[in-house]
Amino acid sequence: MHSTARTAVEPGGVEIACDESGAEGEKLVGGNTDVFAHAGVSLDAAAAAEIVRELRVRAPSPVTEYKAEHVLREKNRATLVWLLGPSGPILGHARVHLTDKAYFAVSKLTDLLAGHHSSLGLDQDERSTALARTLYQEGRPAFGPGRWTAFLDAFNHLLRARNGRAPETSVESAFELVADLRTTPGPAGEIMDLLWAARPRVDAFTERLLDDPHVFPALDPLIPAIAHAVAYWGAGGRPVSVVHDRQTTLTEERVERLRSLLARPGGRSGPLVLTSLTLVASHLDTRVQVADIVAGVARKISSKELNGRGDPELTGLLRPYVDTSSIWPDERSGAALIAGQPSAARASAAASGLSTGRE
Predict the structure, then answer these.
(1) N or C terminus of the chain: which is more exposed, having fewer CB within 10 Å?
(2) Origin, by domain of life (predicted)?
């Protein structure tokens, strides 16, 4: 599991090297980053080593392991443009999946409201997605920044409960906030009404997190990102072997569960074949180093775009690499970053027609 040796690739299969940027476990609210980026690259070791060597020539650094922060420096902009550009070395060989962390937390909550829970997030429930987009867009203006942040933080802590540890926030205190917010006029308040009625589902979900030591962390975006990487690189049923930077989340039990879930028939994605997932130290594998650089660059560029400080040139260069299934609800930045981004307006319109149980 933790070997640095190259994995066996099945005939007709592909091996990808992966790493992430912006990981803070299940802390999705109030952390150091607002975007999680997960990159996969399909390169052999020689090609990856040549990319790292060329980066060191174009943007020198004495560090042992070259990272995204070096190429992101303004003085090295030409190197970054080369790396991502159409004549660069990774176009067609790299893919990055983006997650807006706050929206990911909201979507996990609305999954419970809709009675739909997908650990992998490959097959989205339309009702849950519509509710999530509406709450994400309407929550802050309807409740005010303070109450909105308090609500997100409370449920972030609540849904992190697992492995026999009690949650940092009780269900009772979280639902005291819901009781207050459900009186707010408009769609956001109506969704709080739905949440109020769904308390038994929330209770059951937190109990399950406490009871099962091998359950996927409910709010960690890493597992869904890996699943999306397998779905992209394994299109058409092609077997995928993954070499990944070491992550404590990826225990042997969880990897086996991931392989089993991906292999199940049904859903729009269909069965997927994850042949193996091998954890390595990134400094020992140049392919993982390239994935780390791509993920770090993508996180920085997309976060700036999300917050209205985007660089049009860099955003445009990143766009061909961004997975169209990225968990990204913001329509403005999504239109710039993601080809074929679904309209958030359409999803909100769908949510407005949902029955909330109010008279």
Answers:
(1) C
(2) Bacteria
